[in-house]
Design a protein that fits this description.
Distance between the termini: 9 Å
Strand content: 25-35%
Order of helices and strands: HEEHHEEEEEHE
Strand order of the largest sheet: 3-8-4-5-6-7
Number of strands: 8
Number of helices: 4
Helix content: 25-40%
Structural class: alpha+beta
Largest sheet: 6 strands, antiparallel
Length: 139
């Protein structure tokens, strides 16, 4: 599995409706479910419990990423971003380029999987970067 394959598989989920705890492509998915499903389709196991609340999402996501991935200091496309803020206690996405990422996002204006610019607002919410070590370098 390469970073480009991971990104391409994640892009297949764009447009999938947001559903908290969801794990179904084109039906309903949340940010943790997006990671689980993309990795599973590429024969890699990331387990993120569906049994968390919005208040415990950050701890749940961070524990899963700590177990299945390696925390890194600098990111590259194909890496996983972990976000936190008051409005969004725990959230994750997949970096697709230096300035964009894919995530299952629920807001009043967006409630689906989208590819979003990684602007200053989003960067200020990043608490950690993770890499799936099995992701090779290159295509």
């Amino acid at each position: 599995m390469t970073p480009n394959q991971f990104i391409a598989k994640a892009r297949e989920y764009i447009g999938t409706p947001f559903h908290f705890g969801g794990r179904l492509k084109h039906i309903g998915i949340d940010c943790g479910g997006l990671l689980v499903c993309v990795a599973t389709e590429l024969d890699y196991m990331i387990e993120v419990s569906r049994h968390y609340t919005r208040q415990t999402a950050l701890q749940t996501l961070q524990a899963a990423l700590d177990q299945h991935c390696t925390q890194i200091a600098e990111s590259r496309p194909g890496d996983i971003l972990l976000f936190a803020s008051k409005q969004m206690p725990g959230h994750c996405g997949i970096l697709t380029a230096d300035n964009t990422f894919i995530h299952a996002y629920d807001s009043p204006s967006v409630s689906r999987v989208v590819e979003t610019p990684l602007d200053a607002k989003w960067l200020s919410r990043v608490v950690a970067f993770y890499r799936i070590e099995e992701l090779g370098v290159g295509n």
